[in-house]
Amino acid sequence: MPVPNGRRPALLVAMVTALVGLGCVSAPDQPGAAPPEPDETPVTTASAGADADGTDTPEEFKGDIGDATKIAEEYWAGVFKQSGIRFEPVNRVIAYEREGEVDCGGQPLGLNNAAYCSDGDFIAYDVNWAFAAFQQVGDAFIFYLLGHEYAHAIQLRLGIQKQFTIQQELQADCMAGAYIGDMERQKRLSLQDDDTEELAAGLEAVGDEPGQPWFAEGSHGSAKQRTQAFANGYRDSLEPCNLS
């Protein structure tokens, strides 16, 4: 997902594999590798694959983590300001490498996962899994991952607690769509003609397995539900996300 003057990204259908493991839990402060502090220069992101532009490197990955965090903070700070609410960014974004290296109120975080941590107000992610997904999918994965998990932090700040997990997760998908769509409209992100189609194709495959009860704890929604939730936010901003 590029931004002005950035190089072309790819939102690739391979997002399927990467996003299937996306989780939503919480973790307290633990040692970890935080992303670099973003500066005030325009964000530059790039495409997936080893195509000689350096987008498969750890340095590019760390930069995109920092950029995605910065853009999410900018977006939600603006939304809160318009509503007259004081905004507090998440306390920290933590990378971990080993299972149990970071825990959520005593519950260890596993591998192949990303999580928002209400106990400590963190976003934590398995850095090896996320980097592998970044190499396969591209920077769009990082922006989606941060956008979805940051949405859970916003839900906490607004006091939103749905009865069922699926309601919480579909709202977060809608909020992630609004964040990406609105920042594109504000010229902070710039999608190419086929990027949205590729993103939609990826989202089609991240739904729960067939037969998963919608009311079960941990349910995120069917492929159709998740795609529609994201598309609603991307197209119509936060209105369809029902934050009030």
Overall residue-averaged pLDDT value: 75
Share of helical residues: 40-55%
Order of helices and strands: HHEEEEEHHHHH
**What sort of overall outline do the alpha carbons produce when their principal axes are compared?**
globular
Query: Which structural class fits the helix and strand makeup?
Result: mainly alpha
| Biggest pleated sheet | 3 strands, mixed
Q: Main sheet: which strands, in order across?
A: 1-5-4
Gyration radius over CA: 16 Å
The residue ranges in which pLDDT falls below 50 over 5 or more consecutive positions are 2-54
Q: What is the beta-strand fraction?
A: 5-15%
Distance between the termini: 29 Å
Total domains: 1
The number of helices is: 7
> How many β-strand runs?
5
Could you explain how this protein is built, in words?
This protein is mainly alpha-helical. The chain has one domain. The protein is 43% helix and 7% strand. It is built from seven helices and five strands. The strands form two sheets. Strands 1-5-4 form a three-stranded mixed sheet. The chain has a two-stranded antiparallel sheet with strand order 2-3. Helix 2 packs parallel to helix 4 and helix 3 packs across helix 4. The protein is globular and about 40 Å long. The chain starts with 14 loop residues before the first helix and ends in an 8-residue tail after the last helix. The N terminus is likely disordered.
